[in-house]
Specification:
By secondary structure, the chain is of the alpha/beta class. Helices cover about 40% and strands about 15% of the residues. The protein has helices spanning about 10, 20-25, 50-60, 75-85, 95-110, 125-135, 150-155, 175-185, 235-250, 255-265, 270-285, 305-310, 325-335, 365-375, 390-400; strands spanning about 90-95, 115-120, 140-145, 160-165, 190-195, 210-215, 230-235, 290-295, 320-325, 340-345, 355, 380-385. A seven-stranded mixed beta sheet has the order 1-7-6-5-4-2-3, sandwiched between helices. Helix 8 links the parallel strand 4 and strand 5 (about 190-195). About 45% of the residues are buried.
């Protein structure tokens, strides 16, 4: 005999609880079996009680699952937990971080609308705007991330979105999110923040005034390099548009990946604290090494936006980028000499990764686009994992010796 659990009980008990509790408990709706872990729903469709019930659900007149392209209990649990962590009214999960960006633009922009994008964004983000969205009449311009005056000058009457990564990939540049949000709202535009590098454990852009926040859940949300996914969060009225796009176009998250991300969120806060502590130590150490020309990490007093990072983030993140002597050849020799770090462009993993952005994550950009984004041939990016810092230093010494 099964116990008749109150499916809403857990949500009502979470009012006012702390971030770490939400990361473990939010979004869980216990079923009639009283399961302690989140169930994984592998189904493409759902059976309705009657033809009238089916019609009402398809019409959105009554709540309930319709088709797993846009309604699945496991995916919904992940969405509800992400919304709780970001302080959003609603979150919508997507198949990848890039799918999240596509869903945002397709939901809020039409042909003839203008989008302003920070210059220092992920290479594929620029490719999406330049090679595909412009083809359908979306106008796109790029602005230096930190220069608020540049944003103000570039906004047009038809500007619909301002899109930023803060911190940026891979240079950890920042923008004052509250100031940029105020600027956007004064010109009837929406501010979208890619919060992938910080996660809500370190920064909550919506509370700083942003309208929409998005993630590549593939990174720190998962935390172990297992699955692809993305998420968009904001006000319910806005997310209704995103749901409509996903329902039609279908770039939705699989239930299995959603279940993996739910498990990742349970340890998000404790992982981010460990990542950040190791990255800080490694960045300070790298600044002292001969052969390193410059270190990009907002936790360093030498970073031009160190004070801003202290104000709007709880810590400085896990990505440390640095420039070495010898240009591209020196950077490649450095990377090839390491033995512990994984040579891969992914990040947010328990395993530390190392990559050459100019020929990987930003390799599809033109030389001029890379120059505008500050991606030099001498630049190396390390995403700090959870290994012992002394072992990471020993491996980076191998790279330094190869210069």
């Amino acid at each position: 005999m099964t116990q008749d659990w109150d499916a809403g009980r857990l949500d009502s008990d979470l009012e006012g609880v702390a971030f770490d509790t939400l990361a473990v408990r939010a979004g869980q709706h216990r079923g009639p079996e009283g399961e302690h872990g989140e169930p994984l729903f592998f189904t493409s469709s759902y059976v309705f009680r009657t033809a009238a019930d089916a019609a009402a659900r398809f019409a959105g007149e009554v709540p309930g699952n319709v088709y797993s392209r846009y309604t699945n209990p496991t995916v919904r649990a992940f969405e509800e937990r992400m919304a709780a962590l970001e302080g959003a009214e609603q979150a919508v999960a997507t198949a990848s971080g890039m799918a999240a960006i596509l869903a945002i633009v397709m939901s809020f922009c039409s042909s003839g609308d203008h989008v302003l994008v920070s210059q220092s964004v992920f290479g594929s983000t620029i490719s999406l705007f330049e090679k595909y969205l412009k083809r359908f009449g979306v106008q796109v311009d790029y602005v230096p991330l930190a220069e608020l005056a540049g944003w103000a000058d570039a906004i047009k009457p038809n500007t619909r979105l301002l899109f930023v990564e803060s911190p940026s990939n891979p240079l950890a540049e920042l923008v004052d999110i509250a100031e940029l949000a105020s600027l956007a709202h004064g010109r009837n535009a929406l501010l979208v923040v890619d919060n992938c590098f910080c996660t809500p454990a370190l920064q909550q852009p919506l509370k700083l005034g942003a309208d929409i926040v998005m993630h590549s859940a593939t990174k720190f949300i998962d935390g172990q390099g297992r699955c692809l996914g993305g998420v968009v969060a904001g006000r319910s009225a806005q997310m209704k548009e995103v749901v409509g796009f996903l329902r039609t176009a279908g770039p939705t998250l699989s239930p299995f990946n959603a279940w993996v991300f739910l498990k990742g969120l349970e340890t998000l806060s404790i992982r981010m604290r460990a990542h950040c502590a190791s990255a800080q130590e490694l960045a300070e150490w790298l600044e002292q090494q001969e052969g390193i020309e410059k270190v990009h990490y907002a936790g360093l007093p030498s970073h031009p936006q160190h004070e801003l990072a202290k104000r709007q983030q709880k810590a400085f993140g896990a990505v440390v980028s640095f420039e070495v002597k010898g240009g591209k050849e020196g950077a490649w020799r450095f990377i090839d000499a390491t033995r512990l770090l994984s040579i891969t462009a992914n990040l947010g993993d328990t395993k530390s990764t190392i990559t050459h952005p100019a020929t990987t994550s930003h390799g599809r950009l033109t030389p001029a686009e890379r120059e505008a984004a500050g991606i030099r041939d001498s630049l190396i990016r390390v995403a700090v994992g959870l290994e012992d810092v002394a072992d990471l230093q020993a491996d980076l010494l191998r790279g330094l010796a190869a210069l």
